[in-house]
Amino acid sequence: MRRTTRKAAGIVAMASVLALALAGCSRGGGGDDGDGTAAASSPGITDTTLTLGITTPLSGATAGPGTCTVAGIKAYFGAKNADGGVKFGDGKTRKVEIKALDDGYDPQKAKANYDQLKDSVFAMTAGLGTPTNRAWREAAISDKVPQVLVMTGDPIFSNKDDSPWQLGFVPTYMNEGEAFGKLLADSGEDHKVVILSQNDDYGEGYVSGFKDGIKGASNIQVVKELTYEATDTSVDAQITELASTKADVIFNAMSITPLAIAALQKAQQLNWKPSWFLPSNTSSPGAILGPGKASAFPGVYSVAFSQSASAPGFADSDEGAKFLSELKEYADYKDTPAFPHCIWSYQVGAVLDQVFQKMTSPTRDDFMKELRSISDYVAPFMLEGTSVNTTEDGQPAVSTVVVQKYNGKGYDTVEKFG
Amino acid sequence: MGTFIQLVIDGLSTGSIYAALALAIVLVNQATGLVNFAQGGMAVLSAYIAWWLAGLGVPLILAILITVVVSFFLGALIERYLMRRFERGDPDTAVVVTIGLLTLITGLCGWLWTYNNQQFASLFSLNTIQIAGASISVRSVGTIVVIVVMMVLLQAMFLGTKLGLALRAVAVNPQSAAFSGLPVGRLLMVGWGLSAVLGAVAGSLVAPQLSLTPGMMDTALVYALAAVILGGISSPIGVVIAAWLIGVLENLAAVYVSFIGYDLKVAVPFILIFVVLIVRPQGLFGRKSVVRV
């Protein structure tokens, strides 16, 4: 029933977008620079400002992480702007402005947001969600609008042939799954593994990466694989069925926070105590492991490439304190973020900053060229052993992860399983 | 065998969540003749109030009791100042208003308390008891017991008290009820107030399990409506049994019927509804509605 109301809202939104687009057209091309010597600058950039667009969920079930994807980058550029702005490769100093719209994780709305933003922003960035980013990927290619450093582990965004105007930021689901599979295979011990995965690209990506990681390892046996739907309210039945296998490792490729907590709790109620692997976006110590009482298990593993803001000691470090105060001041985000996406989007800001410093002409073409030329850049809060590398085709900006183990409060990087 | 019993118990526990919401829908329908789509949203709002009070240091059980009282008045106010305007008109309009109310309350909760998941402490412990190879959590048992008590109270109220009779009279025919001296307006307010109370209890019961977010009840609402149709909208006992049936059958079908699995289990309750409605259009336990000509 809510879909009907949403649809109505969508129609109204579409109508206003159309009206805006028409108004935009009647004003003519614009953007030509006076002297005609330099290349014409792209939309969304002047001599003093550059505007970035974001479409991301700010309401609905994914709003927690979604809000973070805006807050982090706002904090980064808010602080930069307060210092005067970003010095670009063409010698000009520009302030970076951000226009963020809510798509509620609805692909149709994401596309409408993109249409609304595309003529007034220089590039689209940082938005969260695979289906939502996919919804306007082809439009962005044909409009030649950069859709870069977006928060999705879908590999299609990092393949240059398919997606010339795109680049993913976070490691692909396969990168993550494979890292854990390898860790397990290298343990040298026999393990019985069960898999519970979300029935979509997200879950399938993790599972296929994991299977690549354990390929050829005779000590690892996958005894049962089950799925669940992202709309399910409970996975109790799945956990019950998996528990009956008495496996000692569960690979839980889940993206829904409440279900991740419920799964941890259910296993404890059944007195089944395997080791867990959780994806990076559902392994927050504060939001998931604490409420799920994860210390009851012999080990809870996750992969990461950046520090966690909710880990003990973070707020006491100079860098951490600065980040939290910038988040408060420039993004109006008052709490310590429970989701990693705030730090990720702060890092997106830092990577864009690097690109801007190299850009010698104010065009989207040059931006894409420089974006693909960053190697071994260690962004703020990155863990040792990880870095930003955009030169390798087929991989997102960050493709290296380290495996971490829960220590009751936060995570420690581990070299081996057990 | 242990797994089978476990699946049944898990199903009853999940079904109880749907049942709690379904009971509130039945109550409003019996008192006003409407299907209230905002019921899930109202339950979430109540849960947020209880969570907020608990956050201020009020003991959980007291916070829930205060919320129950507050919810009664909130429900009554919604009836008096919002729904009253639409009750005389086309019933379809009133239903659409409740859908709008759902969107409004969800947005309001998100605005006030953000869309982040909030941890709502559980009234019951997470400890488990072992019965016949199945582990049953105290929380599941607690939830099931509370639902049964609410169901019995409701059934008794509708069938055995003057208030219940008056509420039903108002729903069936407001004009005749008014002529026979019943305070129609006040009864409608009481009906909405009581359903908000049920919602508050439901919200507080399920928030620890689903973790508190503004959209917490959205999926549960769909199942609750299914239970209402399946059980018969006039029967509290019927909807609770239907909700349990949905929870249990869904689990069993996913595990034991290989072509259904976890991907298709969501369709099970709706196939069930389809079959039941062909045979018994009034639902499993519903009364046939008779119109005098």
Automatic annotation (TrEMBL), chain A:
Residues 1-23 form the signal peptide. InterPro entries: Leu-bd, Peripla_BP_I. Residues 50-404 form the Leucine-binding protein domain. Keywords: Signal. It holds the Pfam family Peripla_BP_6. The keyword Signal applies. The keyword Signal applies. Belongs to the leucine-binding protein family. This is ABC transporter substrate-binding protein. The lineage of its organism: Bacteria, Bacillati, Actinomycetota, Actinomycetes, Micrococcales.
From TrEMBL, chain B:
It comes from the Bacteria. The chain crosses the membrane at residues 6-27, 60-82, 94-114, 145-167, 187-208, 220-247, 253-279. Keywords: Amino-acid transport, Cell membrane, Membrane, Transmembrane, Transmembrane helix, Transport. It is found in: Cell membrane. It is a multi-pass membrane protein. The keyword Zinc does not apply. Belongs to the binding-protein-dependent transport system permease family. LivHM subfamily. PANTHER family: ABC TRANSPORTER PERMEASE PROTEIN (PTHR11795:SF451), BRANCHED-CHAIN AMINO ACID TRANSPORT SYSTEM PERMEASE PROTEIN LIVH (PTHR11795). This is Branched-chain amino acid ABC transporter permease. It comes from Microbacterium horticulturae.
